[in-house]
Known about the structure:
Shape: globular
Helix content: 55-70%
Strand content: under 5%
Distance between the termini: 58 Å
Number of helices: 11
Amino acid sequence: MIDWRHWHNEPYLVGGLILLGWLYALAVGPLRRKLGGPTAFPTSHACAFYGALLVFYLAVGSPLDQIGERFLLSAHMLQHLLLVYPAAALFLLGVPPWLFVRRAPLWPARVVPGFLLTPVVCALVFTFTVTVWHAPALYERALLDKNVHVWEHLAFFGAALFFWWPLLSPAPDRPPLSPPAQILYLLGVVIGMTPLFAFIVFSPEVLYPTYEFAPRIVPTLDAAADQLLAGVGMKLTGMAVALLMMSVAFQRWYRSESPAG
Length: 261
């Protein structure tokens, strides 16, 4: 059954997160002035970035990973939601804008071709990646093969960065969309994710054999109910995030159009 004391400490996970944290500390600390940063230390950015690393580890390194991998699709879905929404959003919020100036190593033109950061492409990358990984054959393969499972989680996190980019871009040369455009962008993503929601929720059969034959650690939650909970949780969370961001965008739009603004 579940070992609540089991936390992942694999070198590629813990070491990778420590390396990212160390490189970030160098960039915003000793190398800050050389990279065009301000004199003051960016405390809010640092809190967001290290918060992203913490959420990432809690999603894939805590006992939640064992529950999601072996017992409950809804727990696995929760992992993905943590990676896609708080972890990816905090990651972008944690990157100071001055790391994206032309002389800095994270300038977008040096890392990602410009056309890949357009809103349409970002929305397509996100919806396509998340949808494809939920195909029964590929999803089941990730549950049975640890290496594939790692790539699945990295793919979700990477696709989430594309999703958040038009909303939270820290790059001065590629600022976030205008508030009206953000609302349309979020609406498009919600619509684009609807077929996946319908596929999971309205499937007449259990899609993933691992969960169909898994021990029922929650006696009242059979495989079909677990799948329904996972699909509804995915859709409601996505809509809640979209509505929240739409509200923020509408408020900014209203303020910019009002005489006082």
